[in-house]
């Protein structure tokens, strides 16, 4: 927006009584412009905002999705917190899943962005390859990794056995201790290329002179990274971490297709728990309560992330 | 020196990690199941299209493909049309209501779709929109409006006002400004949003899972889940279905890599 336009806008909105011919024209056009937003507004309000709000009402009720919902006050909310081991387990899973994915995806995408920063032919080809998984559906990715992780005949375990690492050949998707991590690995495999592209765009904006100056001072590669790349890339890191966090909360498709949250909820995160509570257990009211907690959780996490990143710069 | 070795090692490792699954699927779709299990990475002993033939004859895959195509095309086109119209309006409104509108739409960005599924399911049952393809189109449009409007309104605000003013001088009305000035200028942004929407709509599992139970109305990702159950551990058939489901995106990616990368990245960063 240009400066003069900003001034004109301010004037038109704060002092409507002073409207000359220009102001009148602007206001009459405002109505036309507002009309243009109406179709989108209607669809969004009716089919997205409204159901999100009704969720709030269901959260205070006991309801199987068929009969009348019965109002029960805050019972669902207190039950989640005081008398529901599964809820705590899944909350813990979600924190572990998000933590693992954010740490590894951010670190790896930064590393590969540094490796492939120069626009050589080989770098561009590898970028294309690394980005490739991004275009696939979570369901397809889940099917492939189910095969790779297959405990008896799957390529991963066959490989581990053949090089003598039998003790590492685990039941990747069938064990309560390892499955969540196996799924997190797939999530990182899935989306690292996309975040690498974000980093490359960020790193290419760092002035080349900074590196030249560092080189003149005899800085090693590691010192250059520590004193130039990392601090200059912090804004990009903030974007990557924020997006990766949201993305990890949305991993419904991948987890549902890969493990359905199993075994015994050990690879479930909040979004899969909500779905299973509603559509496998027919506890719609309780599932609505869980989604309220999820929203609160995300808001808290976003606030923390903002605070942390603001103090950094 | 250490850096060079580390770089070569890291790049090779990640390349292998991506190439292996891709090769296993591509080659596996031309093999029998036993051959896939015993020699997942070897070239097929005989390139056979049996899996593809069985899949076409035995199942609903052609139908699933058609459903995915219909739903994706209509969802993307409708979203593009109403979101560009709204974004243009929002960017041009002088009154504060423009800002309020934008805020209202962008609120939808922070919250994962799965948190609204109970309300959405209930609403769609009430309106008899479950088990219909147009119901799926409606929820796709409603849920992708926030991100589209967020990206497009940012773009429309960057267009210098002088351009609009000179057109308005010639007597162009708001809708005319949208159609003849803003839209032609916004081609690249619209393209990026279109690709982003295309990929997420084509690949989506959540909404079809929520709204569709009739097998003749299932989209490809939802049908894949069924095939997984139906063919049990017959992975060569499952991989053939994965191939069918992925080919449109892969072909488009290879044909227009640059637009794909920038489109999907714009959606990611701004979302």
Automatic annotation (TrEMBL), chain B:
InterPro entries, per the entry: MetI-like (IPR000515), MetI-like_sf (IPR035906)
Residue ranges occupied by any ABC transmembrane type-1 domain in the UniProt entry? 65-256
Mind listing the UniProt keywords for this protein, alphabetically? Cell membrane, Membrane, Transmembrane, Transmembrane helix, Transport
Keyword check for Membrane: yes
Primary location recorded for the protein, binned into one broad class: membrane
Localization recorded for this chain is: Cell membrane
Q: Does the entry feature the keyword Nucleus, yes or no?
A: no
Alphabetical GO CC annotations of the entry are: plasma membrane
Which Pfam family would be a valid example here? BPD_transp_1
Q: Name one GO biological process term.
A: transmembrane transport
Per the record, membrane topology reads:
Multi-pass membrane protein
**Transmembrane ranges?**
9-30, 70-94, 101-124, 136-156, 189-211, 231-255
Family classification: Belongs to the binding-protein-dependent transport system permease family.
- This chain's protein is named ABC transporter permease
The protein's organism comes out as Actinobacteria bacterium BACL2 MAG-120802-bin41
Q: What is the lineage of its organism?
A: Bacteria, Bacillati, Actinomycetota, Actinomycetes, Actinomycetes incertae sedis
């Amino acid at each position: 927006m240009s400066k003069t336009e900003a001034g004109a806008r301010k004037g038109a909105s704060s002092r409507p009584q002073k409207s000359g011919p220009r102001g009148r024209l602007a206001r009459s056009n405002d109505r036309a412009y507002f009309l243009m937003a109406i179709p989108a507004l209607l669809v969004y309000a009716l089919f997205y905002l409204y159901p999100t709000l009704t969720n709030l009402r269901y959260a205070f009720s006991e309801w199987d999705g068929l009969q009348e919902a019965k109002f029960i006050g805050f019972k669902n909310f207190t039950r989640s917190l005081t008398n529901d081991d599964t809820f705590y387990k899944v909350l813990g899973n979600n924190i572990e899943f998000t933590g693992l994915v954010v740490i590894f995806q951010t670190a790896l995408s930064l590393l590969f962005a540094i490796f492939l920063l120069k626009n050589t032919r080989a770098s561009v080809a590898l970028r294309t390859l690394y980005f490739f998984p991004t275009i696939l559906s979570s369901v397809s990715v889940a099917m492939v990794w189910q095969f790779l992780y297959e405990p008896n005949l799957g390529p991963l375990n066959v490989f581990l056995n053949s090089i003598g690492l039998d003790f590492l050949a685990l039941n990747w998707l069938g064990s309560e201790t390892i499955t969540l991590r196996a799924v997190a690995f797939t999530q990182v495999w899935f989306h690292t290329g996309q975040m690498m592209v974000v980093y490359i765009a960020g790193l290419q904006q760092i002035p080349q002179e900074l590196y030249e100056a560092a080189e003149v001072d005899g800085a090693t590669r590691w010192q250059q990274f520590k004193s130039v790349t990392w601090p200059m890339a912090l804004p990009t890191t903030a974007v990557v971490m924020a997006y990766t966090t949201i993305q990890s909360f949305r991993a419904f498709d991948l987890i549902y297709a890969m493990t359905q949250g199993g075994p015994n909820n050990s690879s479930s995160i909040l979004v899969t728990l909500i779905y299973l509570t509603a559509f496998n257990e027919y506890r719609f009211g309780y599932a609505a309560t869980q989604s309220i907690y999820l929203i609160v959780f995300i808001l808290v996490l976003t606030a923390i992330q903002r605070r942390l990143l603001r103090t950094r710069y | 020196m250490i850096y060079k070795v580390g770089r070569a090692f890291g790049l090779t490792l990640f390349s292998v990690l991506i190439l292996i699954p891709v090769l296993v699927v591509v080659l596996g779709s031309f093999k029998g199941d036993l051959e896939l299990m015993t020699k997942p990475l070897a070239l097929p002993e005989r390139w056979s299209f049996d899996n593809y033939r069985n899949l076409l004859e035995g199942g609903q895959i052609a139908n699933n493909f058609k459903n995915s195509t219909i739903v994706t095309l209509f969802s993307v086109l409708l979203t593009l049309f109403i979101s560009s119209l709204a974004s243009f309006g929002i960017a041009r409104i002088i009154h504060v209501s423009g800002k309020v509108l934008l805020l209202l739409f962008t609120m939808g960005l922070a919250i994962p779709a799965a948190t609204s599924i109970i309300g959405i399911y209930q609403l769609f049952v009430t309106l008899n929109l479950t088990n219909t393809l147009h119901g799926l189109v409606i929820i796709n449009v409603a849920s992708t409006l926030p991100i589209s409007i967020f990206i497009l309104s940012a773009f429309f605000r960057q267009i210098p006002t002088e351009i609009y003013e000179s057109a308005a001088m010639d007597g162009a009305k708001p809708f005319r400004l949208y159609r003849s000035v803003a839209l032609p200028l916004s081609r690249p942004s619209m393209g990026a949003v279109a690709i982003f929407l295309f990929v997420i709509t084509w690949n989506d599992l959540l909404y079809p899972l929520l709204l569709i139970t009739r097998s003749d109305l299932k989209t490809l990702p939802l049908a894949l889940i069924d095939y997984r159950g139906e063919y049990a551990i017959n992975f060569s058939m499952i991989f053939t279905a994965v191939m069918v489901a992925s080919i449109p995106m892969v072909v488009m990616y290879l044909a227009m890599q640059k637009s794909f990368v920038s489109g999907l990245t714009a959606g990611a960063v701004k979302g």
